[in-house]
Structures are given as structure tokens and as C-alpha cells.
Amino acid sequence: xxxxxxxxxxxxxxxxxxxxxxxxxxxxxxxxxxxxxxxxxxxxxxxxxxxxxxxxxxxxxxxxxxxxxxxxxxxxxxxxxxxxxxxxxxxxxxxxxxxxxxxxxxxxxxxxxxxxxxxxxxxxxxxxxxxxxxxxxxxxxxxxxxxxxxxxxxxxxxxxxxxxxxxxxxxxxxxxxxxxxxxxxxxxxxxxxxxxxxxxxxx
Length: 203
Ligand code: PRP
Description:
five-stranded mixed sheet; 2 domains; D-Maltodextrin-Binding Protein, domain 2; binds 1-O-pyrophosphono-5-O-phosphono-alpha-D-ribofuranose; alpha/beta
């Protein structure tokens, strides 16, 4: 049996749809339940940022998680496949009426993604003061907490509704199938069978 960690929300729904196509039967979490048992699989519903921990510690053999989360956490997991769902970008946003002044001694950036942000600005040799937030990032530059933000953009409507303009795209992200390095040895056949099935469905 394989245990598969899925991030709550749209990626979980899209991933379960892929499984429904493969096995031609419904895969649905009952109301508020966090574990879904089927014949050959056990699905776990976890927060997106927690998927790498479940897979790294082998509480799950396999996981589905955004590339942005993988890059932010730099977890030691095997990347198997880009599922092509949950596409989004990591962008720098600045309030429309303001310009980002790169000559400032330090730019204040609010973000959930500290590592991605630090790496990006240090590659450009731009000094930044990173303010770590856990959500509603778009609010920060509107009330003087930060000069700019680094955040995920999917449809772009959250930034637009809050008068924030995208000034740079740092990276692109989509949901990836990852697995635990030990599981990849001990359950290699099951994992490769799953990989092949999914690949047939999505390509
Ligand atoms: C993410 C992200 C943006 C929003 C982008 O937030 O941080 O706020 O989605 O989506 P859009 O481009 O389609 O508008 P999330 O919904 O995860 O909530 P959070 O602010 O609580 O992190």
C-alpha cells in the first residue's frame, strides 16, 4: 500500500481527479476527514507547506506539492513528475502608485517565502529586509509594513484588487509528484507503476 500526502484545496481535488481517471472510481474525502482509505492507497490531506515533512519522515511514501514549496524548503525528496496542475508564479509586487527604489540602503519585502526571496535578491546583490508573514501578504505594502511583496500569483486577481502591480516574475510553479528516498527503494515497483499511470493520463 502507498500513502500519498496531498495539499488541501485545488491541488488535492485536481490530483484526486487524476486518480479517478486511472482507477475509474471516485476518490473523495468524507466531510472534514483527513484520511481516505482505498484498496491500494491511503491519502492524507495536509497543508501544502507540510507535505514535504510527511514525505521526508516517511509518514507518506509519496506527496503532491507545489514546486514553490519544494524550492522554499529545499527538502531532500525525489522529484518524480510535474503534474501540470496548480500552475502559478512567484512574483514581486509593488503598489501601483509607488516605485521600487533599488538605491535605498534596504528594501523591506513581506513574504511567506523567505528563502526564495533571500536567494533572488542576493543573486542581484540587492540588500533586503525580509518580513515573514503567513498570509494576506498583499496587505503589507498598503499599510507601510513593507515596500514590496514576494507572493504567489495564480489568477492575479488578489494583487489587482489590492492595487498591486507585478514588477518581476521570480519563478514558475506547478504541482509535482515527489517521493521519499527510502520508499523509492522499498516500494519501487508500486511507485513506478503509479508514476507510469499518472504520466499516461496527463501527457
Ligand atoms: C495565495 C497567494 C495570494 C493568492 C494569489 O494566497 O498568497 O494571496 O493566493 O491568487 P490569485 O493570483 O489567484 O489572486 P492563499 O489563497 O493561499 O491565502 P493566504 O493569503 O492566506 O496565504
